[in-house]
Amino acid sequence: MANQTATREFVFLGFSHFPKPHSLFFILFLTMYITTLLGNGLILGTAFLDSSLHTPMYYFIRHLSFLDMCYTSVTLPHVLKNLLAESKAISFPACLVQLYFLVAFVGVECLLLAVMAYDRYVAICRPLTYALLMNRTLCAQLVAASWACGLLNSVLHTAMTSLVPFCASHKLDHLFCDVPQLLKLSCADTFPNQVTLLAVTMLLGVSPFFCIVVSYIHIVLAVLRIRTSQGRHKAFSTCASHLTVVTLFYTTCMFNYNRPSSSHPEYIDTLASVLYNVVTPMLNPIIYCLRNKEMKEALKRVVGRELF
After folding, report:
1. Domains along the chain?
2. What are the tens digits of pLDDT across the range 208-232?
3. Are 238 and 222 in contact (CB under 8 A)?
4. Side-chain-facing half-sphere of 173: CA atoms under 13 Å
5. The model's pTM
6. Distance between CA atoms of residues 106 and 66, nearest Å
7. Are 263 and 255 in contact (CB under 8 A)?
8. Which of 111, 129, 245, 262 is the most exposed place for a label (fewest CB within 10 A)?
9. For residue 125, with 0-12 CB atoms within 10 Å meaning exposed, 13-18 middle and 19 or more buried, which class applies?
10. Do 3 and 167 contact (CB within 8 A), yes or no?
């Protein structure tokens, strides 16, 4: 450990594999960022202002939209700066701050999607007791628990990563600070970090996904018992948007974190990070608008003109 040096900054190499100039990437990412903020902001404002959307499902959607705006804003502004600036560096404290909020928001989204699946389960499988079970207090408690778990989990990861010595290269072949990429640069034994990462992934990633799968198994069985095709279509339509978002989120996350670490081009890491950190938050509001009749009707009332 004699060759350890105090880490003052990291240098991002995410776009070094692509030919310059990067102005086209800047325009593309800026457009996607603005679209993400406007789309999620529109859903957030509409669900808040329109009284017909003051239901548990849209209460959760408001938090999901706010979450997507947050965790995109943690990384994309710095990515945009790096696309234009000569220096691609980020200070060590700034890297830890970015890491903290990124891990926190992704963790919260995993849990929030599971909460939304439970909401759909109660709505379809236990409709007569839905209003009683999914009351305002319980909804607030579920959302608060999701945020608390995500934030506390991130404290653990950030604290453990901050103690890791970096004595090799300080060049991150990525677009932003994330736990796996930072651990690759350590010259010390990162086994405790790897075990913690795996354990938390099981707890906050796999467990919510398992809950979502179980909820939808019950939902499918309940819908198949509905005698009329119109009733089945109506029941499935209330879940279509959420199921699409879940599929998109978990597919891109698994592609980013669970790919084999060997024998793939370096630019694949860059593209994978773009999928779950940029593309998914941008598509979520489009999914909820295009596949949700209530949301489209509310948008007409709030905006005051025919948008759809």
Report:
1. 9-303 (1.20.1070.10)
2. 999 999 999 999 999 888 888 887 8
3. no
4. 13
5. 0.90
6. 12
7. no
8. 262
9. middle
10. yes
